[in-house]
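Please predict the structure of the following assembly.
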Amino acid sequence: MANQKNIKIESLGIYLPETVLTTSELLSQCKHPPSLDFERITGIRERRKAVGEYAVDLAVKSAENALKMSRYSAEDLDMIICTSISKYNRKDEVDFEPSTSMMIRKRIGALRTINFDINNACAGMLNGIYVMESFIKSGAIKCGMVVSGELNMPLVDTSKQEIRHSFDRQLAALTLGDCGAAIILDKSDSDKYGLHQLDLITGAKHNHYCYSKPSKRGPGGVLLTKARGLHRKGAEHFPFYLKKTVEKSGWTMNDIDYGIPHQISVGVIKKNIKVANRFLGEKIPFRLLYNVERVGNTTTTSYFIVLHEFLLNNTIRKDHNLLFVGGGSGMVIAHATYTMDDLPERYISKFGSA
Amino acid sequence: MKKIRMESIGVSYPRKKFWGIGSLSHAVHAGLHCLKNSNYHPMDVQVLINCGIYRDGHYAEPAFSTFIQKKLGINTEFQGRRTLSFDLQNGGCGMLSGIHVLINLILSGRIHSGMVISSEANADKKPDPNYQYKNSGAAVMLDLSPNSQIGFGNFVFKSFEKYMNLYSSFVSLTQKYGRLLIKKTKELEDAYLACVQSVIKELLDTENLSADDISFVIPSQISEYFLNKLPENICFSAEKIINLTHKYTDTLTTSVFLSLKHLLDEKVIKPGQKIILLTVGAGITVGASIYYF
């Protein structure tokens, strides 16, 4: 390996649309509202909704925010990886070519970069980091940006029209929210800080639990989920890999300060804590951070919207050890261990504390 | 310096059947062909990257690679050996980008071997008339070369955003099942030709080679016009430019690898030769790499 040093998040940029859509408002817009208490089950009270903006706009705004606090300018970036799932870059149109990373590159003026898109469902941004880490470690690049703009409201709009009963497979689409996130990665000065381990694994046998494609009933795209099966299968396997990632980092559970799970719903996060406790034979000694009740499931960007909020409210500080716990349809299981450097101080000094 | 080699190549050539063959079938056929030619077992594939753009059902998630992984039987369960699979999209340069990514994963010590796979097929019952790519598939198995003289050299990717509006493809969701639409302008091929020269020059400079050192250039088989104009644009003699448009026409991401497989099967490429793989795609993005045989 050319360069064994850790990579680190040099800068973070989040763009959260201003318009709030509450769960009760959303359910009232459904043609056939589910009869179950959706808000109680998911714990999601509200989410953000982009108005007059498309997926690429969310990505570009988050990329601009990331560049605001970075020591790198757009021209310094060597690579841009866009990991958006939703490529609604115009009304009712999902882009294939040119790549969304190409559009972002043009709009932020990063005209020197290698760019491409990666799609790996909700694990997309972690997958982007995994790929960029190899480029930085092999010495091919110095720094780059992983960016994602998730415009999920078109899926929500279809589900409002098409949900027919309380067990409809489109119900999970009602948990979604819009958000953009971007991170700039480079090499850490010290191996104490940065990304220690990042493990991703695909159990393709289980790829039928959740998928998104054009609707066969009418216009629009749909997200179809067998939620129980998805969570059951995830819960069967993720604790083993969680333990393995922590051990490979040379940590024990007691070394972890905070966990950042993929923000599916409050209910799922709480259930997964119980599953992990049962597997480990003890109560996990760290706190899991989440804000899904206020922003919904923002798919690929969900880890970073949590990081953003808990950096600003001074919860995550320098020297804190973080565990990212996630996954996505496919089925992908992802875990990462990370030690914070001076990013919290720089983040607060740039964007102000919450 | 260590080099990464193509350990095996598998392809699924365009075929005519009454009911057509989808992107998953083409990818699986190419993948099986690649594994058959390989010394590796499916369980040795540590990373599977799918670089195809157009896929059955216009799926947005999960990654289409998971369908391919499942069909190829590559470590589909969580227990035992592990595989990560994901999609990478970079227009017509996708497969070369996928190889570039996989090479860096191997060089960084993350993995030992992996597969880059791609297939193209239009899933629509009534395809857009602008969609003219033949359905096909290609797969490449990569690992660390035992011989430091054999394998991939440098890669050069350049994007030319001023030509971004010349080509675009998207799925329109105004009707059920969606419909793939392609917007293509007449100037596209001339723009490709205008972009390739600087990429080839930079590639040769980074490798410290001249055009005389290169035995063949295998470009994307865009059209007869593009391939006839290419030699003068990149200052290579016409006989070094591989033109198989009469046989395979343009198959987008798989194009270069169908041609490469054809040349290998025909034993046109000999050990010791150096070839350039040249891809062009929407953006405009041009990607090129040298392979030492």
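The helical segments of chain B are 23-37, 64-72, 94-107, 188-207, 224-234, 245-248, 255-265. The domain at 152-292 of chain B is CATH 3.40.47.10 (Peroxisomal Thiolase; Chain A, domain 1).
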